[in-house]
Amino acid sequence: MAQIIVRNLDDNVKDLLAMNAKLHGHSMEEEVRQIIKDAVSKKETGFGTELAGYFKEVGLDFEIEEQKGFTTRNPFEDE
Question: 3-class SS at 19?
């Protein structure tokens, strides 16, 4: 197995990693392994797909029609 050393990591980042590892019930090293694994295996998806993923456990009782091709006017641009 390969090893990576990360130098100059902010103390605040290290503390947050430790806190997240504790919340997930594993070591800080395992937390970093999971973060790296997720980052490199993440498939690029659109915003709608990403948003739907956050709410997939909630469920809906109705169908939402897909909206494509709509543009919005930027109120800060001159017409």
Answer: helix
> Could you report the per-residue pLDDT of 18-59, keeping only the tens digit for each?
999 999 999 999 999 999 998 888 777 788 888 888 788 787
- For CA atoms 16, 19, 24, 28, the dihedral sign is positive
CB 21 within 8 A of CB 27: yes
CA distances from 12 to 18, 21, 31, 57 (A): 10, 14, 15, 32
> Which pTM was predicted?
0.53
Residue 66 phi/psi, 5-degree rounding, is -70, 135
> By three-state DSSP, how is residue 24 classified?
helix
